[in-house]
Amino acid sequence: MSDEKDYRDTVFLPKTEFPMKAGLAQKEPAILDRWARIGLYDKLRTQRAGRTRFILHDGPPYANGDIHMGHAMNKVLKDIIVRSQSLMGKDAPYIPGWDCHGLPIEWKVEEAYRAKKLNKDEVDPVAFRAECRAYAEKWVGVQREQFERLGVMGDWTNPYLTMNYESEAIIAGELLKFAESGQLYRGAKPVMWSPVEKTALAEAEVEYEDITSTQIDVAFEITEAPNAPELVGAHAVIWTTTPWTIPVNQALAYGPEVEYLLVKRNDGFQFIVAAGPADALMYDCLARFSKALPAEERSYETVTRFSGSQLAGAVARHPMHKLGGFFAKPRPLLAGDFVTTDAGTGLVHMAPDHGEDDFLLCKANGIDPVFAVDAAGMYRPDWLWLGGQGSVINKKFTASDGPICTDLREAGALLAASDDFTHSYPHSWRSKAKVIFRCTPQWFIPMDRPNGATRDTSWDDESREATASNGATLRGIALDAIENTRWVPEKAQNRIRAMVEGRPDWVISRQRAWGVPIALYVHRQTGEYLRDPEVNARILNAFETGGADAWFQADHQQLLGEKYDLAHYEVITDILDVWFDSGSTHSFVIEARYGAGTRADLYLEGSDQHRGWFQSSLLESSGTRGRAPYDAVLTHGFALDGNGRKMSKSLGNVVDPLKIIGESGADILRLWVAQTDYFEDVRIGKEVLAGTGDAYRKIRNTFRYLLGALDGFSEAERLPVAEMPELERYILAKLAELDAELRGAADGFEFNRYSRALTDFMNEDLSAFFFDIRKDCLYCEAESSAKRRAYRTVLDTLFHALVRYAAPILAFTAEEVWQARFPSEDESVHMLEWPVLPEGASVESDWTAIRQLRQQVTEAIEPYRREKQVRSSLEAEVTVPVLPASEADLTELFIVSKVSKGDAVTVVPTQRHKCGRCWRHLPEVAQDGALCDRCAGVVE
Questions:
Q1: In terms of DSSP H, where are the helices of 503-548?
Q2: What pLDDT score does 888 carry?
Q3: CA 896, CA 899: separation in Å to the nearest integer?
Q4: What share of the chain is helix, strand, coil (3-state, %, to 5)?
Q5: Is 331 in a helix, a strand, or coil?
Q6: What is residue 63's three-state secondary structure?
Q7: If we measure between CA atoms, which residue out of 435, 831, 452 comes closest to residue 626?
């Protein structure tokens, strides 16, 4: 057949310069530059002015260090949502922001001081604050570039910073709203304290890790027992994993309903422990005690059993009572409803300085804290036992052979000690050092005091009715607000509700330098803070002019005015908890830019923010506005490595988003985010990214095919839906189904569902089905034929829809695709709105049955292809048990030579000749290489 004519020049092959190889890492920066050059973000704001607004309020990351995978995942997800809302025709601004105050930054500046052997406390606070400000400014600039490189579109020229003077003034103003309504108090109570950072910490600033601690059993000799005189001389035994609290012990707690045992050792030593179920707790205690005794002394007998109520009025003495002073005071035994027999001895030693239960029980019995442990975790120099020693978080100091246990052992009070108790313990998430409970004077916002804020019961979503069932306290208002907020996923509501229901008063003071000061004056005699709107107005005016630094440089007499004498007032220099700063962002970002009373449509952060930003924002707004600052809250999980482990430098498993962008492009990372089930923890690694890369290539090739197949398409070629073949109408109907699915997924912020539906449609409905069937029509039909016009009309509809659908996720690729077909100097795919699809795409055939049968035929042909009995499906003739469409239509749909009805799906190689142009095997082709009737007409 060497003399066969070559018809390649007569075939209409797709034409496009759109490359198969993406080269995203090289192309994306140029696309970013173009967006900046045309002012895309501002153009969108102008274009969408007056439309329904959708506000996703950005939770501020710390301006500290390069971004990590958690940052990337969070920002990309936010951008996808904002772009999708914009696509749906809304005005969707995005104001990025940074948390600039607090320990993350202060700690880094202090590290530089320590490297130079300087003491931060000896530096002028304003000068130190200036260094913190400069450090934050540096990292804001770095992170801004990195976030922009991810393709995150926003007002990057005008972000919000908590350290801006206006922000600091509004934060101070929010604090003064709490003060003016009586929602502040100063009190001494145990709070989480970091001895390393020398400041109080909020629960959200603490993370829990398993550690191995020293556990000890200590005997307190009973000196009085009015309800059980036989107990005098016996020893009440307590168990603790914080030996350093024994030098601050002031009482013991027992359970009134607990059964106790008086046990006698064979040397005559008597002690008291709880029995526990089936005496199990006692046996655990004896096992611990016996380890410290020679074998001949490990014999015990139970003297008596008694109820805890008989310990009422009993008194013990401290093991170090011989030191006199504080240690010689009697230690009362107090009834405590928190005492259990789950572990320990059933008796609890009370140090009101270092435990919430301890503090409350002792306070109720007239026992006050003694403040024996200082800010650095050292005992006061004047403390009789271990004065000036520590730190109490030093493992050697609290070990079984350390000074505390050594002294107790010498006093004959240490019944057991071992360094092998594993348990979860709180650590500062910044310094990673252990924290302690420490009683210090702090400022609090009460959770259960009647609240003066006006309750807002208006809700935008009529499907959620406002409730007012939890009381007019901050806790009650916040719980009501939780009920009237949309939580995505729904289970997040239970988590934050439980946290708010059980949380203590909000400690808002920090003993640090870099932050917004608690701008209050406290009367030296009454202890009351000044509540004067005129004074507050002068304070806020000073903040607006000079920022929070103004408080540390102020002429406080001038701020107080003529009505008050500065000599009568203490100037508070504690700073605010940074969670109060970020919890106030709704006021100086959303309300300041969009009007008082405006609520964000959505807050979106990781699941750890139920105890962080979600909650601090909720409490701040509930306390000042009587409502939540958001209508909806979305929670995502954490990014883990490919094996499901937490990323850690020490493990060497950190996946760097900047490296991925530099090698593969941001769109690969964006597609990965969209494809994950981000409501749970997600994995990322080489294998995961390889799968994402494959998915991307299929999407890109779909667009490349569309661009090539639509080469030269014009409106004159467009065909009405009613005149289209049923296959085209079926695909339009499937597109309408996809459209509805994507709208639902976007409304639900479910972009895993969104991306899966989009890629499934592209791969299964288009590439593997529609494009496969119609390639013959595209290549070989006459350019003017109705079938080819219908196909290209549908391709044009698909192009306009799919490029829009893909744009929120593949921000760069969608722009590249759009510009490849519609090049312009100042337009962008991201200015487009959700596609309007053609109507009237009705179908009569059972396309589900047709596609199932097509799959069966394809599977039946495959063995013949493997055995090389046929080289392609065009060389096969098939029989099928049912004919859901005409034989001619099925022949085209199945891409075979012939379809006929039979008893089952069967395949035989065709004996028909192959058309030299379209390669179909048809009855009218006289010999291989000759033309079929259609091709002959086209060529002529």
A1: 533-546
A2: 85
A3: 7
A4: 45, 20, 40
A5: strand
A6: coil
A7: 452
Residue with tokens 């772009």: 83
φ, ψ for residue 188 (rounded to 5)?
A: -100, 120
Query: From the centroid of its chain, how far is CA 307?
Result: 49
H or E element at residue 106: helix 103-115
Q: Using CA atoms, how far apart are residues 322 and 370, in angstroms rounded to an integer?
A: 19
pLDDT in tens, 444-480: 999 999 875 544 544 333 333 334 466 789 999 999 9
What's the whole-model pTM score? 0.86
Q: What is the DSSP letter of 770?
A: I
Q: Residue 580: what residue type?
A: F
Q: Which of 31, 148, 171, 44 is nearest to 100 (CA)?
A: 171
Residues contacting 575, CB < 8 A, separation 6+: 101, 509, 510, 512, 513, 514, 515, 516, 517, 518
Interacting residues of 342 by C-beta distance below 8 A, sequence separation 6+: none
Nearest-angstrom CA–CA distance, 383 and 374: 11
CA dihedral 286, 292, 295, 301 (to 10 degrees): -30
Strands of 602-606's sheet in order across: 56-57, 602-606, 632-636, 486-488
Alpha-helix residue ranges (DSSP H) falling in 484-601 = 491-502, 533-546, 549-553, 556-560, 578-583, 585, 592-594
User: Residue 789 contacts by C-beta under 8 Å, 6 or more apart in sequence?
Assistant: 717, 718, 719
Q: Which residues pair with 215 in a beta bridge?
A: 418
Residue 771 has pLDDT above 60, yes or no: yes
**Residues 222-271: tens digit of each pLDDT:** 999 999 999 999 999 999 999 999 999 999 999 998 999 999 988 888 99
Q: Which long-range contacts (CB under 8 A, 24 or more apart) does 662-666 make?
A: 662/25, 663/25, 664/24, 664/25, 664/689, 664/693, 665/22, 665/23, 665/24, 665/25, 665/27, 665/28, 665/812, 666/24, 666/28, 666/149, 666/150, 666/151, 666/811, 666/812
And the tokens for 512?
A: 């640090």
The single-letter code of the amino acid at 115 is A
Measured in whole angstroms, the distance separating CA 381 from the mean position of its chain's CA atoms is 44
End-to-end CA distance of the chain: 22
Q: Please tell me whether residue 414 adopts helix, strand or coil conformation.
A: strand
